Structures are given as C-alpha cells and as structure tokens.
Amino acid sequence: MSEMWVNMGPQHPMTHGLWNLRVKIDGELIVDVDPEIGYLHRGIEKICEYRRYNEVVTLMDRSCYVAGLAWEQLYFIAAEQALGVEVPERAEYVRTMAQELQRLASHIMWYAAYVEDLGLMSPMLYGMRDRDLVLDLFQSFTGARMTYEYMRVGGVRNDLPVGFSDRARKVMDWIEKKLVEYENLCERSDIFRKRTVGVGILKAKDCLNTGVTGPMLRAAGVARDLRRDRPYSVYSEMDFVIPTHDGADAYGRYRVRMEEMRQSIRIVRQSLDWLDRHPGRVMAEKVPRFVGTPSPPPGREEYVLARDFPKGRGLAAMEEPHGEAVAYIVNEGNEHPYRAKLRSPVFVNISAAKHYMIGYRVSDIPVIMGSVDVCLGEADR
Q1: 125 CB-near residues (< 8 Å, 6+ apart)
Q2: All domains in the chain, ordered by first residue
Q3: 378 FRET partner, CA 20 to 30 A, in 17, 71, 202, 299?
Q4: pLDDT range class, residue 82, cuts 50, 70, 90
Q5: In angstroms, what CA-CA distances link 278 with 8, 15, 89, 158, 253?
Q6: What end-to-end distance do the CA atoms of the chain give, in Å?
Q7: What is the pTM of this model?
Q8: CA-CA-CA-CA torsion for 171, 172, 177, 179, nearest 10 degrees?
Q9: 3-state DSSP assignment of residue 150
C-alpha cells in the first residue's frame, strides 16, 4: 500500500471557509480523515462576559454570515430566561417570520454554491439572484443585509415597515415558483444525480451516536426538528411538516433542504397573516432597549438595570439552518452575562467526518462536505 496525507485547506475552494481537512488516501481512496478547525476562533463566548446583554448581538450576527438572525434569537431566548423577561406575542411572530426568511436565505446560498461545486453553473446564478430578494426584505426591516443587530432582550428593535407584508408575499410567491426550476436543473442532470446518490452515507444510528442534527439527520429518515419537538417562539401555532428522506446520502440532504424551503415559505405566510391582523408592542414593557446601561439617561426612567432583575440561568435550543444550536447564559445580576456557552451544530457535523467520508474517493470530497453545509464562523466561535 502507498498511503499519504493530503491537506485540503485552509485555503481551498472545497472548504467554503477557513479550515483544513486532512485526508489520508491510498491512491484515490479515502482511508482516514482529520478535520482541523480553529482558524476563525475569536473567543466570542469569553467576549460575551465583557459586553452588556444587548451589545452581544453584534457577536451573534458574526457567528455565521448566513444565519445571523438565528444566532441572535438563540442568544436572546437564553438571556430572557436568565433575566425573567417575557416577550410580547407580536415580537414572537416577527421573530418567527425572520427565522424562516433566514432559513430561506441560508438554504438558497447553500444550493447555489453546492450545485456549482458539482459542475453546474446556472444554479449559482439563479440562487444568488433569488437570495438577493430575501436580503432586500431583511434590509427593509432591519436596515442591514447580513449583520442585522435586530433583536433585543424583550423583543425586536423595531416593528415591520408599512407595506412589508405585501412585498414579502410577492417574494415568497416568486421563490416558490423558482424552486421548481432549481429542482429541474438538478433532477434532469445526470452529473448531479450520479455524483450525489449513494455518496457520503451517514445512517441514522451514526447520526445519533455522533450528535449530528439538522438536515443531515432528517436525510437519514429521522423526523427530528426542535421547531416541532421542543417548540419555541410561536412555532407551536404554525402548521408545517418535517421533510425527511431515507437515502442518508448527499442527494437526500439536497432533497430535505429543498422541501424545507417550501415549509419556510409556508411559515412566513402564516406569520404575515397573523401580523396583519394583530397590531401591538414589539418590546416588553419592563425592559429597555439597552439592558445594562450603567445609569439611566436624564428623563429616561424606563431604562432598567440588569441588577434589578433576579439572578437566573437560561438554556435555549433552537433549529437553525444547519441543525440544533444551544446557548447557555448565566445572569449574576451584573450589567453583562456572567457566563455564555454556545453549541454549534456545524462543529458536530464536521467532527463526524470519519463516519461519512472514509471509503469514498477524492473526487467525492467536495460533494460530501458540500452536502454538510459548512459554516466555520459558528463552529470556531
């Protein structure tokens, strides 16, 4: 045997981020893999301990550039539990709508980049065109396209602008029609099917043993989704289904994400219908927009100090686009979290690489790792 280790990264088109996949090969056959991460580690969890509660939002946006709003809400759910803050119902519906728009933008970005990696150029152009429409919606109500800083302890920074619902519905109608085009480009391509079907298999048992979640787990036939199994925000009021596939391969992950986009559109429409009928507050009455301000500005008695709240702890788990993310916040009555801990689904999904890569060929590596949907910002934190 003639075996050798090959570095695919940290600067490599396949990685879609700054990390290194060390691959041991025997000719073209993969016999071992060793993922190396940490190139993007910024110490976010430690920095949280030196930022006031609402100031942490800037760190959450930068945890993952395609899932900023998901990480914002994850952190604030835990912070609100730790501070004992109740969020108004309208704010919860706005958050839910924002989460599904974020899932749409993330999955479209994944589709565009993934199918291009497999040799098809048109999906990249179509996907980036349509994702831009979702980013336009983000810009209309958050003021930004990627780093939003929109959520706050107790709700969201501002309500939706006038005319947003009609605009959002038009975008949802457009994307729903274009999903058919996305599928036709892939399903009618012999290249796509031959490179994805039966490649990168990770069975349900291995998913559960390694902690893999999200589309990878559902592509193995396990209908687990925290939006339904451990509802947060107002997902318990939403009517949607959990897409699954029994292939447990790269093709199955593609199918699951395509169906998830349809379900996200369905949830966005339900959220908009409710929001149109129910005006109200989008911030809790007891909480200021900047929790932990050293002293209230003159004439702004509504500002509340963090130490005015009882000590507590918050544990939040939610279904972000890549899988199950968890945040743990400890409030000791100070102006900033005493402790913050984040659990990234991408970190776990990459760590399980030996279970779905060994036995395949070097040419399969972009296909397999692309189907994982890697975002190293949230993995390294």
Answers
A1: 112
A2: 45-351 (1.10.645.10)
A3: 202
A4: confident
A5: 52, 45, 9, 16, 37
A6: 39
A7: 0.89
A8: 110
A9: coil
